[in-house]
Specification:
The chain is mainly beta and 119 residues long. The protein is 0% helix and 51% strand. It has no helices and eleven strands. Strands 2, 4, 5, 6, 9, 10 and 11 form a seven-stranded mixed β-sheet that branches. The protein has a four-stranded antiparallel β-sheet with strand order 1-3-8-7, with no helix packed on it. A hairpin with a 4-residue loop joins strand 7 and strand 8.
C-alpha cells in the first residue's frame, strides 16, 4: 500500500520560514517527479512547485519564485520545500504528490500539512 506523508507545517509570523518534507512508503520516491500543491481557505488548489526525479529540473509558481526552494535527497527518499519570507497569503494546506514527470497527472497524494502565516 502506497502512502505519501507530508510534515513540517506549523504557524509562523510573516517573514518567517518553514521547511516541509515529503516522504513515501510503498514506492521508491526517487523514481518519481514530486510536486507540491496548496489549497488556501476558500481557494482552489494550486500547484506551487515541482522537481524532476533526478532533481535537475525544478518549477515554481510565480508568486513563490525567489522565496521557496524545492529539493530532494534521493539517498533518504525525501523531497523538501523550503519556504522563506512567508506571507499571510501562503496560508494553506500543503500537499505533495508524485508524477511520472512534472506537468503530467499526479498519482499518489498525501493528506497535507497546514501552514499558517499570521501575526
Amino acid at each position: 500500500q502506497v502512502q505519501v506523508v507530508e510534515s513540517g507545517g506549523g504557524s509562523v509570523q510573516p517573514g518567517g520560514s518553514l521547511r516541509l518534507s515529503c516522504a513515501a512508503s510503498g514506492l521508491t520516491l526517487n523514481y518519481y517527479a514530486v510536486g507540491w500543491f496548496r489549497q488556501g481557505p476558500g481557494k482552489e488548489r494550486e500547484g506551487v512547485s515541482c522537481i524532476s526525479s533526478g532533481g535537475r529540473s525544478t518549477f515554481y509558481e510565480e508568486s513563490v519564485k525567489g522565496r521557496f526552494t524545492i529539493s530532494r535527497d534521493n539517498a533518504k527518499n525525501m523531497v523538501y520545500l523550503q519556504m522563506n519570507s512567508l506571507k499571510p497569503q501562503d496560508t494553506a494546506v500543503y500537499h505533495c504528490a508524485t508524477t511520472d514527470r512534472c506537468g503530467r497527472p499526479y498519482s499518489y497524494w498525501g493528506q497535507g500539512t497546514q501552514v499558517t502565516v499570521s501575526s
